[in-house]
């Protein structure tokens, strides 16, 4: 068993969060032509929720027919781990048909997005290298 660092309180109500208790929120960004960003997100680890000072982790869900806008983050890298579904992942000028179990790294500044052109929902774990306040720059 590890000891907590000196001065760090172990407050499980801040450290442990569950997608079923937290619930999903709709994405709220807008594209270059006013089109809405589509998908759902449930934050699980963040500055506000957990006190994190170095990362943000969420559960993302893209419903059938939805498109998470192509965009980039000039100040943060990101990753996806696909749990369910087979989304089309847009990375720079390439497209990749993902499947459950895939881990996808998105370097800072790389244009990326997700299209769910299938009949099944897509579930993913999404991580960002900043706890909050990263820039979302739409590329479409």
Automatic annotation (TrEMBL):
Where is the Cupin type-2 domain positioned along the sequence? 65-126
Q: Name one Pfam family in it.
A: Cupin_2
Would the keyword Metal-binding turn up in this protein's UniProt record? yes
Keyword Metal-binding set for record = yes
- Domain of life of the native organism: Bacteria
As recorded in UniProt, coiled-coil segments are: none
**Sorted UniProt keywords:** Metal-binding
Show the InterPro entries listed in the entry: Cupin_2, GPI/OXD, RmlC-like_jellyroll, RmlC_Cupin_sf
Q: List, in alphabetical order, the Gene Ontology terms for molecular function in this entry.
A: metal ion binding
- Write down what this protein is called: Cupin domain-containing protein
- Native source species: Crystallibacter crystallopoietes
């Amino acid at each position: 068993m590890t000891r907590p660092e000196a001065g760090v309180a172990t407050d499980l109500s801040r450290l442990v969060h569950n997608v079923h208790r937290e619930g999903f929120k709709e994405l709220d960004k807008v594209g270059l032509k006013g089109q809405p960003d589509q998908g759902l997100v449930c934050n699980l680890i963040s500055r506000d929720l957990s006190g994190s000072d170095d990362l943000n982790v969420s559960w993302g869900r893209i419903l059938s027919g939805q498109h998470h806008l192509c965009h980039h983050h000039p100040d943060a890298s990101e990753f996806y781990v696909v749990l369910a579904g087979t989304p089309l992942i847009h990375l720079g000028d390439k497209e990749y048909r993902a499947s459950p179990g895939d881990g996808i790294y998105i370097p800072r500044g790389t244009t990326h997005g997700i299209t769910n052109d299938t009949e099944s929902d897509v579930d993913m774990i999404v991580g960002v290298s900043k706890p909050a306040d990263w820039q979302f720059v739409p590329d479409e």
